[in-house]
Amino acid sequence: MNLQEKINQDYAKALKEHDVLKSATLRMLKSALHNEEIKKQGKLSEEEMLRVLNREIKQRQEAQQLYLKGKRSDLAEKEAKESKIISLYLPRQLEYQEIENLVTNAVAQLKAQSPADFGRVMKTIMPQLQGKAPGETVAKILKEKLAQK
């Protein structure tokens, strides 16, 4: 069963169980995936679906921060719950140490020597880490590694 089928199945289940938050979140997720398919003019690959899910989580995290700044903890809590629901459909997230090891290996394999090699290494490593690690974390670790050289 692919990711989209799983989301559709869970959406139907949430509707039957009258889980308002989960059904609304999955409806928004289905809509985001559908809009991406329209933009692409075709079916999405698993990697593209994961990219959409990560984007949706990031939007909710940003909204949560803004709500907290605006002292709207009720809305911030709702955004956090939506993020948690969406994250259930992502693969297991890698630990910091695992990401660091993968970045170190990629730097060694590509013989990256300076910060000028940043783009080349990111292009190589991100497909392996898509959906498993935030790009910002990977970029931060890679910058540290290349700065040490």
Q: Topology of this protein?
A:
Elements lengths: L2 H14 L3 H21 L5 H24 L3 H15 L8 H15 L7 H12 L5 H14 L1
Helix pairs in contact: 1-2, 2-3, 2-4, 3-4, 5-6, 5-7, 6-7
Offer a concise description of the structure.
The protein is globular, with a radius of gyration of 18 Å. The chain has helices at 3-16, 20-40, 46-69, 73-87, 96-110, 118-129, 135-148.
Task: Outline the structure in words.
The chain folds into two domains: 85 residues, Uncharacterised protein YqeY/AIM41, N-terminal domain (Hypothetical Protein Yqey, Chain: A, domain1); 53 residues, Arc Repressor Mutant, subunit A (Orthogonal Bundle), CATH 1.10.10.410. The chain is an all-alpha fold and 149 residues long. Helix 2 crosses helix 3. The chain has seven helices and no strands. 77% of the residues lie in helices and 0% in strands. The model has no long low-confidence stretch (mean pLDDT 90).
